Amino acid sequence: MAAVQILEEKALFPRLAEEFVTCAKKAISQRGRFTVALSGGSTPVRFYQALVEGGLASKVDLSKVYFFFGDERDVSPESERSNYRLARDLFFKPLSVPSSNVIRWMTEIIDAKEVAVKYEQSLRRFFELKPGEFPVFDLVLLGLGDDCHTASLFPNTDALKVTDRIAVMNRVEILDSNRLTLTFPVINSARKIIFAVTGPEKAEALKEAVEGERNCSRFPAGCVKPTDGELVWLADKDAAALLKKK
Ligand code: 6PG
Predict the structure, then answer these.
(1) Domains of the chain: which residue ranges?
(2) Which residue's C-alpha comes closest to atom 13 of ligand 1?
């Protein structure tokens, strides 16, 4: 069972930024580059602010950092709901991250299934994968939905069962929308996975994910179990309020 590190909300995102820098330095020193899959939703706003305010560009050679997205909404990259746009405006632009270092879901393509195929192809090329291989990210950052989804792996959706794909479109009926997501085999292949969870509305989901019975259909985040990598949960006191083990 992964331990949950409980922090004051105002300390959580600087801590996440520190973890990011540590991972980046280690990966760049060992392999000459750092590959990271960013999470979506609203939690990353405070993470991006911590990276920018913490002077990330002076700590890490960003030309050796390659940014991916764990999931994306089926919207234009210019949409207010785009996970890419949030990162571009709050992080990539302020830190002058080269666009060639950002590998995003090409959601301007109308057909969401085609977006997923193209993203899978881009990851196969980037990681120089043989058939059947999965990319190994140095770091996968994840959020947690109050329904215990993570990335766009929502309860009772088809993507939860996919074991032979890297990137898929996932129909999420409860949202009446299509989502785009990396699959469990990709996420669980990562060298390190960090969840960042804040707010009382996440307390039930966090308890199920960390302490509940394994049930990937109902509580997808509980099935994030790195094969060889490290799993870290960062949570504030409100999100961790229902945990037995403090
Ligand atoms: C998304 C995310 C999603 C998110 C959780 C938490 O595209 O919405 O990838 O998995 O991480 O829903 O969202 P908040 O950070 O907004 O609470």
Answers:
(1) 2-213+224-236
(2) 41
